[in-house]
Amino acid sequence: MCGHKIPLVADLPSQLEHTKLPKTAALGILGIPGVTAYISLIHACKVSGGETVVISSAAGQIGHIIGQIAKILGCRVVGYTGNSDKASWLKTEL
């Protein structure tokens, strides 16, 4: 389980290649939330397919990205959140 702080240094590009993506994409999946989710799940926790990933604040900015990456990897994803509206959104949209 990954419930403690792990210092990590990762080599990331200093800027994204020019694309036709809107600049707002850098605020979401391609920005700090997406990079945080990816580095945490892949490099710090070293998750692989077939494992169960439990996510606190699963409907949050980073939590829902972790859930999507874990699903892509073939993991079983269990998330919890603060209310039934958020839980419904997770079940129907993600």
TrEMBL record:
Highest taxon of the lineage: Eukaryota
Organism lineage: Eukaryota, Metazoa, Ecdysozoa, Arthropoda, Crustacea
One GO MF term attached to the UniProt entry: 15-oxoprostaglandin 13-reductase [NAD(P)+] activity
Transmembrane segments: none
InterPro entries for this protein: MDR_fam, NAD(P)-bd_dom_sf
GO BP term (any one): prostaglandin metabolic process
UniProt-recorded name of the protein: Uncharacterized protein
Source organism (scientific name): Lepeophtheirus salmonis
